[in-house]
Structure to design on (664 residues):
């Protein structure tokens, strides 16, 4: 397997887009600021040109669905808001195959989240910006001539259990008795709808600067039907439909019913992470009807709770996901490692959408400790389209940097507490530098380089030449117990400076390279004499069991003399405290010290419960739910470090020059 370098991608997220917008932000006066609101927009226009090329530029807060002449063109467009705290993404969509000479209709359904989350920052107002160029000339803009209406079938759902506060999405409740039938069709007459209200040009508040979407539109795998004997009459019991694997799905149903019956839809992962996530409800109209709930869910099963007596014609789903290919593969003569690699790949994919996520249920949040592991896996598991999601996250992390130089994740969104060790991991050797080493994307490093230095300068070295610990917003070293924090602070800062030194060399900044190397040398000169006791690494005031993470990172920093490798092996053989997130670094340290057999046996021992499980994805902790860490979700790609270890060290495949120009 050979991964080719990323080429020809130069997205600049630091300023307003250079596209010369003429369109106006529009909204519906009756539906501007309601949380969880849905708005229909329609425009009919006459095209007098032969369509050789047609490009639409579309921005919304928060998501949209687009039909041209009654044909679905975009299924869930738009990105969660937040390239910077005061900016909005826009999509660029090729409409050439869909437009024709003469009259054309455009229909847009906009879902406005209306609230912040751990992955989205709300503008505070629902809006649509639409501009169409045909043959490179502006042919249509959003303005007050567009027709709009509040979609009466969608309720602003506040009853029943709501998604936990981390999610910007709300439950979807659709009442088919109130739907506007065929409103998206070309022949629909929207003349009775109200005219849209103009709220300013591109760049105006509250949406502000516009940034081109840096990742592809979602891959749509199409509607599929669950294999059942149709039609059948519901008994009122929950109907459980097994999915092929854990992924992002939207539910679909076709029933024949009386009006006013409530069908509830959720997945077996509704309480993933022990807190409520998203669900849907459909209220029937009279007769035969079909419905697809547009908000994606995830799980291994869809649960349809259909009232007794309703005739079920079909039940199904649409899988959507990040547009990348599963190009990597791994196979050996031990089925355990093959299953681990495959489950890691599947878990990686389910934690990708608007951002890299910790999990697709409880939070959908871009925690950067997770991103570092996920990004490392993607270089072996997926095609180069996946690089764009890491690139997007890098810019977002640094564009949200605070005036005092600190950075925080998850971003974008309403979380602003710094996790110092995750942040050091992000900007350093395993984070930004590894991104460059596998992609050769020098432009991104160049753009974020000053912000990285600003963050590293927040940290201070004490009189003992070692790092002065910083609490930040949350002093988090890892899930679990027995964390030797003083040792970990020095190691993560050293690795961050190591990454920055290499960035400085890449950018030919000798002054900053020397600064970083001086910081590293100070730590290296004092680390062993402070923390090595002859048998293990341990800080003087630390009283708990020896920290396997701290001893592993000492290896990866290069602090361990070869004469002490056997002692480190004994520590890593005996101590088992790391979470699945940090386990990757423990395994890598064993490999680096020549203990491949122990690395493989430890991997098998620690992950066997996950791999033997019928679940298709890896877990947040070593158990599920309250037996795991942080709520114990069943789909956390930070647990997939074994994929990287197997690919990089067991197969021995890694770049010797940036972008795989030379590789082992």
């Amino acid at each position: 397997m050979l991964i080719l370098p990323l080429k020809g991608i130069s997205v600049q997220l630091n300023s307003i887009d250079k596209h010369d917008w003429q369109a106006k932000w529009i909204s519906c006066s009756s539906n501007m600021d309601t949380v969880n609101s849905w708005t229909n927009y329609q425009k009919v226009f006459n095209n007098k040109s032969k369509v050789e090329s047609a490009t639409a530029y579309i921005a919304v807060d928060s998501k949209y669905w687009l039909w041209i002449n009654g044909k679905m063109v975009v299924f869930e467009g738009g990105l969660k808001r937040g390239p910077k705290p005061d900016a909005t993404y826009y999509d660029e969509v090729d409409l050439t195959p869909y437009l024709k000479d003469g009259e054309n209709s455009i229909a847009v359904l906009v879902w406005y989240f209306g609230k912040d989350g751990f992955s989205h920052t709300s503008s505070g107002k629902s809006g649509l910006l639409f501009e169409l160029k045909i043959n490179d000339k502006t042919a249509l803009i959003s303005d007050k001539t567009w027709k709009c209406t509040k979609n009466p079938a969608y309720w602003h759902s506040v009853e029943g259990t709501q998604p936990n506060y981390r999610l910007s999405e709300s439950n979807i409740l659709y009442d088919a008795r109130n739907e506007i039938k065929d409103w998206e069709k070309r022949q629909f007459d929207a003349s009775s709808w109200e005219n849209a209200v103009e709220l300013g040009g591109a760049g105006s508040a509250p949406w502000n600067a516009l940034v081109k979407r840096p990742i592809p539109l979602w891959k749509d795998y199409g509607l599929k039907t669950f294999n059942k004997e149709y039609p059948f009459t519901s008994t009122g019991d929950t109907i459980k439909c097994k999915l092929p694997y854990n992924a992002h799905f939207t539910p679909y149903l076709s029933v024949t019913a009386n009006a006013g019956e409530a069908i509830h839809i959720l997945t077996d992962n509704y309480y993933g992470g022990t807190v409520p996530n998203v669900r849907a409800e459909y209220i029937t109209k009279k007769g035969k009807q079909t419905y697809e709930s547009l908000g994606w869910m995830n799980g291994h099963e869809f649960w349809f709770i259909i009232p007794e007596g309703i005739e079920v014609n079909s039940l199904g789903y649409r899988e959507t996901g990040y547009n990348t290919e599963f190009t990597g593969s791994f196979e050996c003569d031990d089925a355990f490692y093959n299953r681990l690699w495959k489950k890691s790949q599947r878990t990686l994919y389910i934690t990708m959408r608007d951002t890299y996520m910790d999990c697709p249920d409880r939070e959908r949040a871009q925690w950067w400790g997770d991103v570092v592991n996920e990004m490392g896996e993607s270089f072996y598991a997926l095609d180069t389209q996946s690089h764009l999601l890491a690139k997007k996250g890098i810019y977002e992390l640094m564009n949200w940097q605070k005036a005092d130089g600190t950075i925080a994740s998850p971003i974008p969104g309403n979380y602003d507490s710094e996790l110092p060790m995750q942040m050091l991991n992000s900007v350093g050797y395993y984070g930004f530098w590894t991104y460059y080493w596998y992609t050769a994307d020098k432009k991104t490093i160049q753009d974020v380089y000053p912000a990285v230095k600003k963050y590293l300068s927040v940290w201070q070295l004490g009189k003992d030449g070692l790092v002065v610990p910083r609490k930040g917003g949350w002093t988090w070293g890892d899930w679990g117990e027995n964390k030797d924090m003083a040792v970990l602070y020095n190691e993560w800062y050293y690795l961050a400076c190591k990454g920055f030194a290499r960035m400085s060399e890449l950018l030919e900044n000798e002054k900053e390279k020397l600064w970083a190397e001086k910081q590293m040398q100070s730590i290296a000169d004092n680390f062993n004499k402070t923390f090595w006791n002859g048998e293990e690494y341990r800080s003087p005031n630390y009283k708990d069991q020896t920290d396997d993470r701290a001893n592993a990172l000492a290896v990866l920093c290069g602090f361990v003399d070869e004469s002490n490798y056997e002692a480190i092996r004994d520590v890593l053989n005996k101590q088992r405290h790391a979470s699945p997130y940090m386990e990757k670094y423990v395994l890598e340290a064993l490999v680096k010290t020549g203990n491949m057999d122990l690395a493989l046996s430890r991997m098998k021992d620690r992950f066997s419960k996950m791999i033997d499980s019928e679940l298709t994805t890896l877990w947040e902790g070593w158990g599920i739910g309250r037996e795991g860490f942080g709520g114990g979700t069943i789909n956390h790609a930070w647990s997939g470090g074994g994929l990287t270890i197997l690919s990089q060290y067991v197969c021995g495949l890694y770049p010797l020059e940036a972008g795989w120009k030379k590789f082992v």
